Protein backbone atom coordinates (compact mmCIF):
# COMPACT_ATOMS: atom_id res chain seq x y z
CA UNK A 1 0.00 0.00 0.00
CA UNK A 2 2.91 2.38 0.72
CA UNK A 3 4.09 2.45 -2.88
CA UNK A 4 0.59 3.19 -4.17
CA UNK A 5 0.09 6.01 -1.65
CA UNK A 6 3.46 7.51 -2.57
CA UNK A 7 2.70 7.28 -6.28
CA UNK A 8 -0.60 9.14 -5.85
CA UNK A 9 0.64 11.87 -3.51
CA UNK A 10 3.79 12.51 -5.53
CA UNK A 11 1.56 13.73 -8.37
CA UNK A 12 -0.98 15.50 -6.14
CA UNK A 13 -0.14 16.02 -2.47
CA UNK A 14 -3.56 17.60 -1.92
CA UNK A 15 -5.49 14.44 -2.74
CA UNK A 16 -8.27 13.92 -0.22
CA UNK A 17 -7.60 11.01 2.17
CA UNK A 18 -11.11 9.68 1.69
CA UNK A 19 -10.68 9.73 -2.10
CA UNK A 20 -7.27 8.06 -1.80
CA UNK A 21 -8.72 5.35 0.44
CA UNK A 22 -11.46 4.65 -2.12
CA UNK A 23 -8.91 4.43 -4.95
CA UNK A 24 -6.83 2.00 -2.92
CA UNK A 25 -9.80 0.02 -1.63
CA UNK A 26 -8.91 0.48 2.06
CA UNK A 27 -10.23 2.39 5.05
CA UNK A 28 -9.44 6.11 5.35
CA UNK A 29 -7.87 5.51 8.79
CA UNK A 30 -5.44 3.00 7.27
CA UNK A 31 -4.27 5.58 4.72
CA UNK A 32 -3.94 8.28 7.40
CA UNK A 33 -1.96 5.94 9.66
CA UNK A 34 0.33 4.84 6.84
CA UNK A 35 1.02 8.44 5.79
CA UNK A 36 1.74 9.44 9.40
CA UNK A 37 4.16 6.51 9.71
CA UNK A 38 5.93 7.50 6.47
CA UNK A 39 6.24 11.09 7.70
CA UNK A 40 7.71 9.83 11.00
CA UNK A 41 10.20 7.64 9.08
CA UNK A 42 11.08 10.59 6.79
CA UNK A 43 9.97 8.70 3.70
CA UNK A 44 7.60 11.63 3.15
CA UNK A 45 9.86 14.61 3.75
CA UNK A 46 7.49 17.48 3.00
CA UNK A 47 4.65 18.81 0.87
CA UNK A 48 5.30 21.51 -1.70
CA UNK A 49 3.32 23.72 -4.04
CA UNK A 50 4.55 24.22 -7.61
CA UNK A 51 4.22 27.90 -8.57
CA UNK A 52 4.83 29.53 -11.93
CA UNK A 53 6.57 32.64 -10.61
CA UNK A 54 6.71 34.15 -14.11
CA UNK A 55 2.96 34.78 -13.81
CA UNK A 56 3.38 36.82 -10.63
CA UNK A 57 4.87 40.23 -9.95
CA UNK A 58 7.60 38.67 -7.80
CA UNK A 59 11.03 38.66 -9.39
CA UNK A 60 13.08 35.50 -8.87
CA UNK A 61 16.18 34.14 -10.50
CA UNK A 62 16.87 30.41 -10.30
CA UNK A 63 20.28 28.90 -10.90
CA UNK A 64 21.89 25.50 -11.12
CA UNK A 65 25.43 25.59 -9.76
CA UNK A 66 27.78 22.76 -10.64
CA UNK A 67 30.45 22.37 -7.97
CA UNK A 68 33.69 20.36 -8.01
CA UNK A 69 34.94 19.56 -4.53
CA UNK A 70 37.62 17.59 -2.73
CA UNK A 71 35.92 14.90 -0.65
CA UNK A 72 36.93 14.89 3.01
CA UNK A 73 38.63 11.90 4.61
CA UNK A 74 36.10 9.64 6.29
CA UNK A 75 33.11 11.83 5.34
CA UNK A 76 33.29 11.87 1.56
CA UNK A 77 31.02 14.53 0.11
CA UNK A 78 28.58 14.62 3.04
CA UNK A 79 30.39 17.27 5.07
CA UNK A 80 30.69 19.82 2.26
CA UNK A 81 27.14 19.07 1.08
CA UNK A 82 25.86 19.80 4.60
CA UNK A 83 27.68 23.14 4.73
CA UNK A 84 26.16 24.09 1.38
CA UNK A 85 22.57 23.00 2.07
CA UNK A 86 22.51 24.95 5.34
CA UNK A 87 22.55 28.26 3.44
CA UNK A 88 18.96 29.58 3.28
CA UNK A 89 19.34 30.55 -0.40
CA UNK A 90 19.96 26.92 -1.35
CA UNK A 91 16.91 24.91 -2.43
CA UNK A 92 18.59 21.59 -3.15
CA UNK A 93 21.98 19.86 -3.20
CA UNK A 94 22.59 16.65 -5.16
CA UNK A 95 25.65 14.41 -5.43
CA UNK A 96 25.97 13.79 -9.17
CA UNK A 97 28.09 11.83 -11.62
CA UNK A 98 30.04 13.48 -14.41
CA UNK A 99 32.51 16.36 -14.49
CA UNK A 100 31.18 17.93 -11.29
CA UNK A 101 30.43 16.46 -7.88
CA UNK A 102 27.51 18.50 -6.53
CA UNK A 103 24.57 20.19 -8.20
CA UNK A 104 23.23 23.08 -6.13
CA UNK A 105 19.93 24.78 -6.94
CA UNK A 106 19.23 28.18 -5.49
CA UNK A 107 17.17 31.27 -6.02
CA UNK A 108 17.79 34.97 -5.61
CA UNK A 109 16.13 38.23 -6.52
CA UNK A 110 18.65 39.13 -9.22
CA UNK A 111 21.46 37.61 -11.28
CA UNK A 112 23.87 39.72 -9.25
CA UNK A 113 22.54 38.29 -5.97
CA UNK A 114 23.06 34.72 -7.18
CA UNK A 115 26.53 35.55 -8.50
CA UNK A 116 27.36 37.22 -5.17
CA UNK A 117 26.31 34.07 -3.29
CA UNK A 118 28.56 31.93 -5.47
CA UNK A 119 31.57 34.24 -5.18
CA UNK A 120 31.20 35.18 -1.50
CA UNK A 121 29.85 32.03 0.13
CA UNK A 122 30.22 28.98 -2.11
CA UNK A 123 33.54 29.41 -3.91
CA UNK A 124 35.59 30.28 -0.78
CA UNK A 125 34.69 27.01 0.98
CA UNK A 126 37.93 25.09 1.53
CA UNK A 127 36.82 21.93 -0.29
CA UNK A 128 35.45 23.73 -3.37
CA UNK A 129 37.73 23.45 -6.39
CA UNK A 130 35.52 25.14 -9.00
CA UNK A 131 31.96 26.19 -9.78
CA UNK A 132 29.89 26.68 -12.91
CA UNK A 133 26.71 28.76 -12.72
CA UNK A 134 23.79 28.06 -15.04
CA UNK A 135 20.80 30.40 -14.87
CA UNK A 136 17.33 29.02 -15.59
CA UNK A 137 15.82 31.19 -18.31
CA UNK A 138 12.48 29.44 -18.72
CA UNK A 139 10.81 26.40 -17.19
CA UNK A 140 8.94 24.10 -19.54
CA UNK A 141 8.25 21.27 -17.11
CA UNK A 142 8.90 21.00 -13.39
CA UNK A 143 8.22 18.10 -11.02
CA UNK A 144 6.33 16.29 -13.78
CA UNK A 145 4.04 19.24 -14.50
CA UNK A 146 4.10 21.10 -17.83
CA UNK A 147 4.40 24.81 -17.07
CA UNK A 148 4.87 26.35 -20.51
CA UNK A 149 1.80 25.34 -22.49
CA UNK A 150 2.37 25.40 -26.25
CA UNK A 151 0.83 28.42 -27.93
CA UNK A 152 -2.17 27.69 -30.09
CA UNK A 153 -1.92 28.55 -33.76
CA UNK A 154 -4.02 31.68 -34.19
CA UNK A 155 -3.87 31.68 -37.99
CA UNK A 156 -7.11 31.24 -39.85
CA UNK A 157 -7.54 27.99 -41.73
CA UNK A 158 -7.65 28.72 -45.46
CA UNK A 159 -8.73 26.02 -47.87
Can you offer a commentary on this structure?
The mean pLDDT is about 90. The relative contact order is 0.14. The protein contains 5 helices and 6 strands. It is α+β, with helices and mostly antiparallel strands. It folds into 2 domains: about 1-40; about 55-140, Lrp/AsnC effector binding domain/regulation of amino acid metabolism (RAM) domain (Alpha-Beta Plaits, 2-Layer Sandwich). Strand 2 (about 90-95) and strand 3 (about 100-110) form a beta hairpin. It has helices at about 1-10, 15-25, 30-40, 80-85, 110-120, and strands at about 60-70, 90-95, 100-110, 130-135, 140, 145. Helix content is about 30%, strand content about 20%.
Bulk shape:
flat
CATH first level of the largest domain: Alpha Beta
**What's the number of structural domains?**
2
Reported CATH architecture of the largest domain: 2-Layer Sandwich
Under CATH, the topology of the largest domain can be stated as: Alpha-Beta Plaits
The major pleated sheet works out as: 4 strands, antiparallel
Q: Give the CATH superfamily of the largest domain.
A: Lrp/AsnC effector binding domain/regulation of amino acid metabolism (RAM) domain
Radius of gyration over C-alpha positions, nearest whole angstrom = 21 Å
* Ends distance: 55 Å
**What is the total tally of β strands?**
6
pLDDT < 50 stretches? none
Strand line-up of the largest beta sheet:
2-3-1-4
Strand content: 15-25%
Query: What is the H/E order?
Result: HHHEHEEHEEE
Indicate the structural class. alpha+beta
Amino acid sequence: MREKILTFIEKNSRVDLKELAIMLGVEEAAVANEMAAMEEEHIICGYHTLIDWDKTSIEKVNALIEVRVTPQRGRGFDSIAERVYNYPEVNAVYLISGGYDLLVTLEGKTLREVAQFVSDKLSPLESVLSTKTNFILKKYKDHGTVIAKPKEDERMLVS
